[in-house]
Every structure is written in structure tokens, then in C-alpha cells.
Write a structure and sequence with these properties.
The complex is a heterodimer of chains A (291) and B (247). Chain A is mostly helical and 291 residues long. Chain A has one domain. Chain A contains 11 helices and 2 strands. Chain A has a two-stranded antiparallel ribbon with strand order 1-2. Residues 286-291 of chain A have low confidence and may be disordered. Chain B has 247 residues and is an alpha/beta fold. Chain B has a domain at 1-89 and 199-247: 3-Layer(aba) Sandwich (Rossmann fold). Chain B contains 10 helices and 10 strands. Chain B has helices at residues 52-60, 82-88, 105-112, 119-132, 134-138, 149-161, 179-194, 206-212, 230-235, 237-243, and strands at residues 12-23, 26-37, 41-46, 67-72, 75-76, 90-93, 167-171, 198-202, 215-220, 223-229. In chain B, the strands form 2 sheets. A 6-stranded mixed beta sheet of chain B has the order 6-7-8-3-9-10, sandwiched between helices. In chain B, strands 2-1-4-5 form a 4-stranded antiparallel beta sheet, with helices on one face. In chain B, strand 7, helix 7 and strand 8 (198-202) form a beta-alpha-beta unit. The two termini of chain B are 29 Å apart. The chains are: A mainly alpha (291), B alpha/beta (247). Chain A binds chain B through residues 164, 167-168, 170-171, 174-175, 177-186, 289-291, and chain B through 60-62, 81-83, 86-87, 91-92, 94, 98-103, 107, 110-112, 114-115, 143, 145, 159, 163.
């Protein structure tokens, strides 16, 4: 009984880690440019199809596929910023957000035209063999997904705190004027932010597609990650991570205690509850400052 | 401007010629011309809204003048973006300091040296800044947003010094500071000048500014109404009445 519960928690955490990665993409772009990029979920979907193509059609090895997918996703992010966002950067934020929704529809439909709307199988490097550690029970896949996500988060943390470019990105988020006076190319930082966010979305896609499904509507996962970011406090990086993880666990447990239908809507119920009870989220008021 | 007297500390480092700058349809500068000689301190005086800050922004590239030219070390810079202008040797300490409040004091200083690559030279600059402002060394791990007003001003100046500039643009460095701190800030400006940096200073405190400057220019609604040797300006009746609060 306890094993079943812990396995539900751990597999929820695995999905939650992927939500956290996608939520990070939302928050990074939002902090740097004030834009909420609603095409974030489509980066995840696109990377699923890119890795599918490379893996199944071209028969490349998994690690090569992962690397190429990350790079291609990053380039996609830069292209989206250049083509869709930058030309209207002086327009009201609302217009830019609508433009990202438009871009997400274009991406989803393009995937549908190329790959059709059937669910495609995507293999994973992580097996579903069970592991037992005391009362903890989980699969190799859970551990692999959680481990990979944590590695990515740690790498991002080091990038933002230990490198000059990472510091310049934080500085630009705080004052674009001062960053320009220091010699930072704010446009370059924006491109880099989109590249990183899309690349993280790409990793998320490779991790999540084998777990749930791969079809052009995979991008809906972006909405769940967005809810996770709001739960954590939108704009907060620790909030995105914790919020995404909690959401994954909660979602899985609601499926376990109630049924699959409740699991499907649990995200949205939680989203409404958070917005009504505590719109600033878990880390909204305090922790936003310390990122 | 050509008949400068012989007390000029050097040839012009910066020449501003007839710049007109707009914010949307509002014209903030209506043809401003002046020179900043090498190794001098030049001050821009005037009431709020006269165009002093806009003049500095037009030099550092934060806003682009629609007409006129800005020449620095013999190169036109008025069409260049800020990130290139700072590389040429102009550091702008903006109005209200504009620090990175959620970066530490040390990170703010490192951002000041963003355009430089020689790690050893950067380290040497950091040590000089720490020697000049010991408080910044003490508070290096503190977030900039938690510093007091005076400390923030020192950090803003320290950050600009980290770029090792030839010309420093200072926008109201004494604004909102207690009289003792104002003294300290002006002492620091003198030191920066003595170490070979040219200073273009915008100030409300006309008396103090003219007392350390070589030249002064008085701005009124986007044009220069009065220019001259700072000692002459200190004696000028109009300046005394309008900006020094004397009769």
C-alpha cells in the first residue's frame, strides 16, 4: 500500500520535473522581456517530433538525438523571437502575447500536416524496470527523468550565477537601460533567452513524449506547466521549479485517489484555487527578489 | 566656441554640435552645442526639464538625436547604440543611479567591466575601486538594492569606473544625499578627475558644481543660454540669481 503511494508520488514528481522545466522556459522569457510566450508548449511538442524523426527515420543514437534536438529547439526559439516577437517589440504586451498564441497554432498545425494526428510511439533510453529502496518504489524511467531534470536545473543555476553572460542576463532583467550602459547588447540577451527557454523545452519534450504521448497536441502540456508556474508564483524561478514539481505530484495523486477524469481537470481546479486564494503563488511575494 | 581662452586643459575630447532630441513629438533639445576639453571638468546647469539629462543620454546613446552631431575622440558617435559607445570610453552614471538592485555589490562592479576582457586589468580596477570606496569592499556580498542612498551613489560611480572610462558622464550625483555625503561625492569627483578622467557633470547644486568645474553651460528649455569659464559664471548676476539662490 505504502509502496503504491510512494510510486505514485515519485512518478508524479518525474512528470512534475518536466512541468518545472517547461515552466522555467516561461519564467525566463517573462523575466527578461515581460512577454508570456504561449508557444512554449509547442517547443516541447516540436522537439518530440524532431527527436522522433532523428531516432526512427534516421536511426541516430539516443544521445546524438538529444544533443541535436536541444540545438534545433534553441534555434527555433531564436527564429520565433526574430520573426514573430522582435518586429512588434514596441507594441503593447497584449499584442505580443496574442502573436505567440498565433505562432503556437501555426506550429501545431504544421506538425499535424507533416506527421498527421495519430499518436506516435517514441522510445526512451530509460527502461520501466522497477527499483525498490525501502518504502520507495519507482521505475528507472522516473529516476532518469528526475535526475536529468535536476542536472539541467543545476546547469542553469551555475550558468546564471557563475558566468559573465548569465550575470548579464540577470542584470538585463533588472534594468535594460543600465545593462545597455554597461555595454550589454539587450537584443542579443533577448535572443539568448529565447534560445535557452526553447532548448529547455526541447529537453522536456524528449523526456516527456515517451511517457505521455506524441501527437501535435502535446503542446497542451504548456498550459499545465504554466499552471505550475502560477502555483509557484509567476516570475519566480524557484517558484517555477517547486510549482511544477508539486503540480505533477498532485495531479498523479488525484488520479490515484479519485479517477482519471479528475486527474485531467485537477490542474485547472488547482489553477483556479490558487488564483482566487493566493494569486501571488507560493513564492510570489517573498522569493521573487532573490533569483 | 572656437575662441576658447588658453586655460583650456586640452583639445576637445567631446564635441556636441547642434543636437536636437525628441521624445515622441516633444522636442527636449533644440540645438545644443558645447565642447568638453580633454582632462577637464565641464558642468551643465539648469532647472528641471531644461534638457540636462537628455543631453547626457544623447551622448551615451540611450536616446538618438534627430539632428546635429556628437563627436568623441574624432569619431561621430551620435548614430551608435549605447553598447558600442561605452566601448569607446564613455561611462554614463545615470539619473537615479540605475543599479542592478538584485545583483550583489560585487556583481554590479563586475557588470561595470562587462566590455573589458583583460582579467588582470579588471582585477586591478576592482582593487582601486575598493580602495577608493572601502564600504563597497565591506558590502561586496550584499544586494545593491539594500544599500543606503550614499552607498548606492558610490556603487554607481564605482561601477562606471570599472569600465576604465576616458570620459565620465555624471547625472546629479548629489541628488537626495545628506550635506556630508555631498561633500564626499564632490571630493570623489575631484579625485577621479585628478587621476586623468574627463568629467561631464550635470548638477542641481550649481555652486558646488561650478566650484570644481573648468567650464559651465547653463541650459534653459532645450537651449544653452549661457556659457563660460566657471569662475566667471560664479560671478554672473543671472546665474547667481537663478541657480545659486543669491541676490
Amino acid at each position: 500500500m505504502v509502496e503504491i503511494l510512494t510510486s505514485q508520488v515519485v512518478s508524479g514528481l518525474a512528470t512534475g520535473c518536466v512541468y518545472a522545466l517547461i515552466a522555467l522556459g516561461f519564467v525566463l522569457i517573462f523575466k527578461a522581456t515581460d512577454v508570456v510566450n504561449f508557444a512554449q508548449g509547442e517547443f516541447v511538442m516540436a522537439s518530440g517530433f524532431i527527436s522522433y524523426t532523428l531516432l526512427i527515420r534516421f536511426g541516430l543514437s539516443y544521445w546524438v538525438v538529444l544533443l541535436v534536438t536541444i540545438v534545433v529547439s534553441g534555434v527555433m526559439g531564436v527564429i520565433l523571437e526574430r520573426v514573430v516577437v522582435r518586429p512588434i517589440m514596441d507594441a503593447p504586451i497584449f499584442s505580443i502575447v496574442i502573436a505567440t498564441i498565433g505562432a503556437s497554432t501555426v506550429l501545431r498545425s504544421s506538425a499535424g500536416i507533416v506527421y498527421g494526428y495519430d499518436v506516435l510511439p517514441l522510445p526512451t533510453i530509460f527502461s520501466k524496470d522497477p527499483i525498490r529502496m525501502g518504502v520507495l518504489s519507482f521505475t528507472v524511467m522516473d529516476a532518469g527523468v528526475i535526475g536529468s531534470s535536476l542536472v539541467i536545473m543545476m546547469a542553469l543555476y551555475l550558468f546564471f550565477t557563475r558566468t559573465k553572460t548569465g550575470m548579464a542576463m540577470r542584470a538585463t532583467a533588472q534594468s535594460q537601460t543600465a545593462a545597455r550602459l554597461m555595454g550589454v547588447s539587450v537584443k542579443g540577451i533577448f535572443s539568448l533567452t529565447w534560445a535557452i527557454s526553447a532548448a529547455i523545452g526541447g529537453v522536456a519534450g524528449v523526456l516527456i513524449a515517451p511517457i505521455i504521448y506524441l501527437d501535435p497536441n502535446l503542446g497542451v502540456i504548456g498550459v499545465k506547466a504554466f499552471a505550475g508556474a502560477i502555483l509557484g508564483g509567476f516570475g519566480s524561478i524557484p517558484g517555477a521549479i517547486v510549482g511544477g514539481m508539486l503540480l505533477g505530484i498532485l495531479e498523479n495523486l488525484s488520479g490515484y485517489f479519485f479517477n482519471a477524469g479528475i486527474k485531467q481537470v485537477s490542474t485547472y481546479i488547482l489553477l483556479i484555487v490558487v488564483l482566487v486564494v493566493r494569486p501571488s503563488g507560493l513564492f510570489g511575494a517573498v522569493a521573487v527578489k532573490r533569483v | 566656441m572656437s575662441n576658447r581662452d588658453n586655460r583650456a586643459p586640452g583639445p576637445p575630447l567631446l564635441t556636441v554640435d547642434g543636437i536636437e532630441t525628441f521624445y515622441g513629438s516633444i522636442q527636449a533639445l533644440k540645438g545644443i552645442s558645447f565642447e568638453v576639453p580633454e582632462r577637464s571638468i565641464v558642468t551643465l546647469l539648469g532647472a528641471n526639464g531644461a534638457g540636462k539629462s537628455t543631453t547626457l543620454k544623447s551622448i551615451s546613446g540611450l536616446v538618438a538625436p534627430a539632428r546635429g552631431s556628437v563627436t568623441f575622440k574624432g569619431q561621430r558617435i551620435d548614430r551608435r547604440p549605447s553598447e558600442e559607445i561605452v566601448r569607446l570610453g564613455i561611462s554614463h552614471v545615470p539619473e537615479g543611479r540605475d543599479l542592478f538592485p538584485e545583483l550583489t555589490v560585487l556583481e554590479n562592479l563586475k557588470m561595470g567591466a562587462y566590455v573589458r576582457t583583460d582579467k588582470r586589468a579588471i582585477q586591478a580596477s576592482l582593487e582601486r575601486v575598493h580602495a577608493r570606496f572601502p564600504i563597497l569592499a565591506q558590502r561586496r556580498a550584499q544586494l545593491a538594492g539594500t544599500l543606503s542612498g550614499g552607498e548606492q551613489q558610490m556603487l554607481a560611480i564605482g561601477r562606471a569606473l570599472m569600465a576604465a572610462p576616458t570620459l565620465m558622464l555624471l547625472d546629479e550625483p548629489s541628488l537626495g544625499l545628506a550635506p556630508m555625503l555631498v561633500e564626499e561625492i564632490f571630493g570623489i569627483i575631484r579625485e577621479i578627475h585628478a587621476s586623468g578622467t574627463t568629467v561631464l557633470l550635470v548638477e542641481q547644486n550649481a555652486n558646488k558644481a561650478l566650484s570644481i568645474a573648468d567650464y559651465g553651460y547653463v541650459l534653459e528649455t532645450g537651449t544653452i543660454s549661457l556659457a563660460g569659464d566657471s569662475r566667471q559664471l560664479l560671478k554672473d548676476d543671472h546665474v547667481r540669481r537663478a541657480y545659486l539662490g543669491q541676490r
